[in-house]
Amino acid sequence: MTISLKSPARSSDHEKFSDEQYDYHVNNADPDAEFGGTEARKILEKKLLWKVDCRMSILVLIYILNYIDRNNAGAARLRGFEADLNLQGTEFATLLSILYVGYIIMQVPSNMFLNWIGKPSLYLPTCIAIWGAISSLTGVTTNFTGALLTRFFLGFVEAAFFPGALFLLSKWYKPNELGLRTAILYCGNIISNAFGSLMAAGILDGMEGKQDP
Known about the structure:
It comes from Psilocybe cyanescens. By secondary structure, the chain is mainly α. The chain has 2 domains: 40-171; 173-206. Helix content is 78%, strand content 0%. It has helices at 8-27, 38-56, 58-70, 72-76, 81-85, 91-117, 120-137, 144-158, 161-172, 175-207. Helix 3 (58-70) packs across helix 10 (175-207) and helix 7 packs antiparallel against helix 9 (161-172).
């Protein structure tokens, strides 16, 4: 028969002391310990941020192409776009503005759908492929109605990209990192304005008469 020499009160105090020690250890543990300390964690975060920046840089290129694609009708006008489609009166202006009708209609629903499916890696590339196909169809239209439909659906699909890109950035960057990345993304708009017309001029000069047998 074994007789315990500890009183119930002393045993309770010992357990209480152990719990307090445990709570102190949990609450004061270094969250960076598993990364090798605070400095090591900062180095790892910089490396990770650089990798994410490199991958997200493709968004700037896509935005440049998006904006050039959106404004290609204005460049094509210089090489007989109106004459080829037999446009009359305000029909050319209608073709320019109808794109933004589809663009405005789709922007908010697109991001709601993107948030619901949670797969920007699938949704955005799919939209890019579709708007590329629709843009190609502009080259085979022969009248105002065909051009009107392609321009409307082009804006409808392109509306997914810019808000979707902002949504994607917000998922990968901290709030204090997001402002700079958003500004860099928007630089794609400025770059496209600077070089879009030059690219269009080169393409139109190189393709002049190529459609003829």
